[in-house]
Write a structure and sequence with these properties.
104 residues, alpha+beta, Glutaredoxin, two-stranded parallel sheet, two-stranded antiparallel ribbon, 5 helices, 16% strand, globular
Length: 104
């Protein structure tokens, strides 16, 4: 939700946001309607390769993907990442914008 509030800044910087969730597949419309998210949402099952390939699956033994954010560079490489320390931990939009400025 915080990233959505800064969408104009991300758009100006030509930064694309993609949310990936392993929530119940009935959740996409529910999440989008509750949060007014206006960037792409990818829903995948918890047992797919996506969370595991980014090293964010089952970090707390709960069978869930941790809340994480990755900045991917123009070559498709991970330039920066923030992996949640617990289920309620999310990186701030301000921190993301600082990292983007640093990576320029």
């Amino acid at each position: 939700v915080e990233l959505q509030k800064q969408k104009k800044i991300f758009d100006k910087e030509n930064i694309q946001i993609l949310a990936i969730s392993t929530d119940d597949l009935k959740g996409p419309s529910d999440l989008a309607s509750k949060t007014d998210i206006q960037f792409p949402l990818l829903f995948t099952s918890a047992d797919s390769d996506v969370p595991d390939s980014y090293g964010v699956f089952n970090l707390f033994g709960d069978g869930l993907a941790s809340a994480s954010l990755f900045l991917i560079d123009k070559r498709g490489q991970i330039a920066w990442k923030s992996i949640g320390e617990n289920t309620g931990h999310f990186v701030t939009a301000e921190k993301v914008l600082q990292q983007i400025d640093f990576l320029k």
